[in-house]
Amino acid sequence: MQQLSLRFIWLPWFPILLIGLFYSPAVTAKPPNILLIVSEDNGPELGCYGDPYARTPHLDQLAEKGVRFENAFVPYSVCSPSRACFLTGKYPHQNGQIGLATHKFALYSKETPNFVTLLKKQGYHTGLIGKLHVNPETAFPFDYRAIRAANFNRREPVTAYASHAAKFFTQAKDQPWFLSVNFPDAHLPFIKKVNGRPAQPLSADDVKPLPWVGVSTPRLREQVANYYNCLARLDTGVGLLLNELDQAGETENTLIFYIGDHGAQFPRGKGSVYEGGLRVPLIVSWRGNTQPGLVRKELTSTLDLLPTALAAAGMQIPEDLPGRDLKPLFTDERVTNWREYIFGFTTGSFPRNCYIQHSLRDTRFKLISNPRPGTDNLIADSYLDQSHPHFVISGATAADQKTISPQVKQAFTRWSQPPRYELYDLQQDPYEWNNLADDPMFAATKSRLINTLTDWQQQTRDPFLDPVNLEAFVKEQLDHRDMKYRKQKDFRWSYLDSFANWRAEE
Asked: Where do transmembrane segments lie in this chain (predicted)?
């Protein structure tokens, strides 16, 4: 009788007890935090990618704990467009940021949905440490900001990024959070040592240039050595940041992305649509979800970051995002129906570097489309012509070019004045030295890739598919090579309206 009475006493309370258990912290996990680590101007020159000169133990360890993507790419190999792409999840011609923010290029609309606005709707506390470099900044209403400048002079030490992150973790309290940390290394100037880091820097005698550069002189090797010294300092910063994450007790429930914003600033790298400019490191670590030490070789894009983050946060992925949720690639399960092609693009990013190019690659072949063949590629000139007003110290001087092979000389000439199409067999020629566009044996491949590129431009409403838009854009750029617009407060590029209107037409 006593047992029966107790049963009737507990029975009304049983549903309430179940509800309490279901919603208790032990049963209902909060959405994952999202940490996006972005480094400047570096491709996959890391130890975990097999680079012989890189000293990157912390990033290598992150790869051991997560998934390393062997074939990851950005849609545009200059800072502002690249960042706008992964923040909005859209191609440059879709979001409008087709050049540098410092040169008045911007999103078509400040209302463009992005990492910040979308996650804030889901209750995320949001933060940015380091530069944003996308216009307008008001489109990204972060709750927390620190080290707003680019910090290319490294006056803010690498330790400052971790210190600000620790403050952010404290502020977030019980909210899920999204934090983007943007390190200045390895952007020019390539500084050998800052505040004692790295302790034992490399010198010119310790390294060889990146294999796609094609130039090896003591002067250039010194730049390469200091590039690797920057990467070592970056790696220290990542280690300090991840340590703060661990100290805050947040590692277990944090989805971590690490990317470079585009390739290194050497000839045929940053600013180009060659592999040296577009291919980047991508490491994803999320305990309990990513298979430790896994390497995936599928074609992936920084456009995939936003869909992946939204899905992890339990949100619906907007239909107009061209990227994909990476989660199916987090284990070694076979994945079918993944993307076949990766697209790249450049406008040169500002008037004195103006040149329009598209690229398209599959797992083997790479097409480059130059819609204005026979005209000077001003991007190439900034690396190969010392009279260019923005010639970079990591470019190839006239003296450097006297040492190059005939094959490299031919490639530099092609880069400087491109033909209508370039075609490369990346399986046989990974550094894109031999143009096969006029080889009859590859005519079918060339035709297939041209048709695929045209279809993609039509499907994504690329304004540069229309010759009228293309020529108007180039003319306006070349007419403003004096760069007086930078001092005009209300200056606005005409494409911001004309391209937006063209894209809206049926």
From this structure: none
